[in-house]
Amino acid sequence: LAGRLGELTALRQRLEALEAERKAHDEANWRGLVKLYEAMKPRDAAVIFNDLDLPVLLPVVDRMKEAKAAQVLAAMQPERARQVTAELAQLRTRAVTPAGPAALEEKR
Length: 108
What we know:
With about 110 residues, the chain is mostly helical. Helix content is about 85%, strand content about 0%. Helix 1 crosses helix 3, helix 2 packs across helix 4 and helix 3 (about 55-65) packs across helix 5. The longest helix has about 40 residues, at about 1-40. The N and C termini lie far apart (about 45 Å).
């Protein structure tokens, strides 16, 4: 039993290391995409962002430098910029309160 416990502990540690490696790889991929859009002229990026799917757009905008993101959002179609802003606010709220709005309601 003790041997099996040791095996399981080693396996858990390996899985945790693999997960950390996967997250670092994913973050590096997102960072590369962010750099690409930050290097573009804001109007050019805005044209693409106007039609980009939200599951791709939100992580990119969220990782952009605020000054760059502001320029791109300002050049976007107003309704699309409002949508992105609202979705980004929800994304950031969920990151702060992982349980979501239901947990806030329960506390009241």
